[in-house]
From TrEMBL:
SUPFAM superfamilies: Flavoproteins. Residues 440-464 are annotated as: Disordered. It comes from Acetobacterium woodii (strain ATCC 29683 / DSM 1030 / JCM 2381 / KCTC 1655 / WB1). Residues 1-140 form the Flavodoxin-like fold domain. One of its GO terms (molecular function) is oxidoreductase activity. Keywords: Flavoprotein, FMN. This is Iron-sulfur flavoprotein. InterPro entries: Flavodoxin_fold, Flavoprotein-like_sf, ISF_SsuE-like.
Amino acid sequence: MNILVLNGSPKGDNSVTMTYIKHLEIVFPEHRFQIRNIAQAIHRLEKDDGKFDALMNEVRECEVVLWAFPLYFMLVHANYKRFIELIFERNQEAVFSGKYAASLSTSIHFYDHTAHNYIRGISEDLRMNFVESFSAEMQDLMVPSERQNLRVFMENIVDACQKQVVTTRVFPKLSQPVLNYQPATPQKLTELGKLSLVIVTDSGSMSDNLKNMLERFRSSFTKTPEVVDLTTIKIAGGCLGCMKCGMDNECTYDGKDDVRTTYEEKLKKADIVVFALTMKDRYFSARWKNFLDRRFYKTHQPGLPGKQIGYLISGPLSYEQNLRQILAAQAETDQANLVDIITDELTTSTDLDQAISNFSEKLMRYATIKVKKPKTFLGVGAAKIFRDEMWGDLRLIFQADYRYYKKHGMMDFPQSKFSTRLMHLFVPFLRLGPVKKQVQDKTKDMMHRSQDLVNKQEQEKRKK
């Protein structure tokens, strides 16, 4: 069987992801694996029509397309994203249609599911027969049971292709908003005061609706907010995956372009950051993803702590809940507060005008009183994964992260809490019949005893 592996690592053959493909080549010598380093060669594929056409011919001739990639900010690398854009821009959907597909990733299991959801959604948009995904932890190849899982994954793909299995669609087709937004002049302006607001956008991929949404939003304030347009700043290249940043947060590109300066001097000095973006396939533009990937100079540290953030989005976000989850998760892992997401999926221009006005007022109110909503599983689970990795296997490389986590109290292991350790001393006594029964009888009351005390204290305070 002819299997075309589309490699999404910017490091090409020298990547952890490709060691898994190499293992499959060894275990399944009867099948032919053709590896093409997509992310590493994206500029040649963009500029050289001959190389792109040759790749499309290889897709035509293969029986299975295996999307293989490392994780970059809850998705694939920006260069891989750009390749997906090229498929649609150059009307090559038919080349992929009917092919069997699967995805394989390597990561620390940090939002690996959102990356696989994205790739599956794209595969379904290309009318491919998507079989399944395999998400490997970077060191899984060292574990015999995980190697067996990898082999079963490959066997399932081959079996589905040979039997011409009918696959089911998981993600709905995207339906573009029908509103032709024509904004009215705001009747009431929002006072910025001493607060600073920065808008980040990518005019190179901006729809007419987003352009009008952005103008309406900017005109809603007494002082016009600054706009950072990613098409006008210098971005020398994409994240190389070199991990030079791990020791001291130094990037290979430092001093060579505007990315670090934009983050440090614009975004991090603002009280409010609003991202105005147009959906492109099931995400935003590859240039936006490049800007986001390059933020990895701060490695696994929160990117916008304490900021109020929001989104103005043109596109069918209600059909793409995977992207909505990414936005919510990004805010929580950045220790920022997601105020709202406004899209052009409303029925009338008047409704969208009102939504944007409410959004501007809400941003100011939240920034003034410094709202910080509780984290959900999206943020809590992510923090635990990073904490454990920075204490464990990744500490050697990402020493800057370890120092940051120690300094900011993020090494919050439960066994470090004295009260928890003290409580555990009494656990053996729970095996005693009378003690066990007494605890069981009082468990419901004990669960909220501390909360009752807080409420009682608040009640007494308000009586004074």
